[in-house]
Structures are given as structure tokens and as C-alpha cells.
Amino acid sequence: xxxxxxxxxxxxxxxxxxxxxxxxxxxxxxxxxxxxxxxxxxxxxxxxxxxxxxxxxxxxxxxxxxxxxxxxxxxxxxxxxxxxxxxxxxxxxxxxxxxxxxxxxxxxxxxxxxxxxxxxxxxxxxxxxxxxxxxxxxxxxxxxxxxxxxxxxxxxxxxxxxxxxxxxxxxxxxxxxxxxxxxxxxxxxxxxxxxxxxxxxxxxxxxxxxxxxxxxxxxxxxxxxxxxxxxxxxxxxxxxxxxxxxxxxx
Length: 250
Prior knowledge:
The chain is of the alpha/beta class.
């Protein structure tokens, strides 16, 4: 599949392939990635011609002016980088604003040398875990935003601040020059985490948390009933019946 992907997107022989796969959304940090790539070329001119960034951006909310503007900005910046650093046979940035099937996305993951998940703020972000799960060859490097929830689990990824272009560019250089042994060790550990922390464990932990909250709520209710102030006669305003009901509540 590696050769097929490289042929389809015209990736030069010998160039490392970086991929980003997500919706075309301002929270995903696509423009910041392009900025980091240009920063890499400025700091390390020897990388020009040796790396291609393939950005798959599925169209999202295209009728909204803000998203339409983002699309135009991404295309404009990609073209600027290509004109500044590219040639007839080399495009540093390949921007594809199309939907892809899941099978096609997995093929891209397996062909990539580096996967960038550098959202500006996010939830878990399953792209990071999908990339790791797809790499049964235990190769490839994951660059992961500290603002994605997956960064709390996938500690063997290169964790970056997407707002810091210099930091991102140096992390890209580290990923591009990382040896196969280190790639293997990092990916093996991340695959173990993804395999263990699956949907069944997640569902089980949610149910356990819910049970603990209910139990704590029951205890808080009992405490609140017993701590109500006494009435004028000195008796607690909570009747014995209420106490029994509270204690017996499950």
C-alpha cells in the first residue's frame, strides 16, 4: 500500500511522508502545521526536497463563511510553500480537501512515516489511536498535541504544543531522523496501550464511575437527613420513617 499511496499523490522517491487526516476545521491546527513545516525548512534547509506533508481535510460546514475562509487560507498557504520551496517534480505540501473511505485512510496511515495530530483544542481525538492501531509493522512516528486527550495515554508519541511553530519543527526533525529501533519501541508501547484501553474497558470504567457516584450520592443524602436542625420540641424534623427510607434506599 505504501507504493500505491506514493504513486497516487506523486511523492518523490526517498522523501519522507508526513500525513494529517481530519475534518477541515479551525480547531485541528492545519495552518499551524503548515507554519511548522515552513519553520523546519528555514531552520534546516537540508530537509527541503526530503519531506512531503500530505494533508487530508474532509470538507466540513462548507456553507459557513468562517469554514469557507479557512479552506481558502489553507489552499493559499499550501501554494505559497510549494512556490517558495518546491519545483516541477517536488511539492512540499499536498492538500486534498476530499472525503476518504475508512479503508483509504488506513492505507494512508500505513504508508506514512509520520502522522501529525496537532489540534489546538480537542477531546480524545481518535485519529491518533487509529494511526497506532493501523501500524502492525510497529514503525512510524506520532506527533501529538498536548491539547488532545489521547496525549494523556500515548506518552511515547512526540508531544508538542501546536501554538509553538519552532517546537513543532524540531519535533518534526526528530521524527524524520528517528531510527527504526526507536520507532519500533515507541510504537510497540503505544499499541499495547491502545489494545488494553479498548472500548470494553472504557465502557466498564464508565459504569464503575457511575456506580461510585450513585453510592456517594446515597451516603450524602443520608448524612443530610441526619444533620437537619432539631424542631421546637427538640426532635429532629426528619421522621424515623424518612430515616429508614433513606438508609434502605438503593
